[in-house]
Design a protein that fits this description.
By secondary structure, the protein is an alpha+beta fold. The protein is 32% helix and 23% strand. The protein has one domain. The termini are far apart.
């Protein structure tokens, strides 16, 4: 039996819109990640996929679409 792959859920559409908006305002990926920290979110890479997490707890919110890579 193959090990089950742990996939975080998709990001809530409202949060995804906030993230997309902040990415459009930012001049670089580094600035975008800094801006997200102001909202209490962080982005980490897990097995080549970007995952949105809560800054305070580290809980995974969901996977980000490939457009943010």
């Amino acid at each position: 039996m193959a090990p089950a792959e742990r996939q975080p859920p998709a990001v809530d559409p409202g949060v995804l819109e906030l993230i997309r908006s902040e990415r459009e305002k930012a001049l670089s990926p580094r600035e975008w990640k800094f801006r997200l920290r102001g909202y209490g979110y962080a982005v980490k890479t897990v097995e080549g996929t970007q995952v949105l997490t809560r800054l305070a707890t580290g809980d995974e919110v969901g996977t980000l679409p490939p457009e943010f890579a």
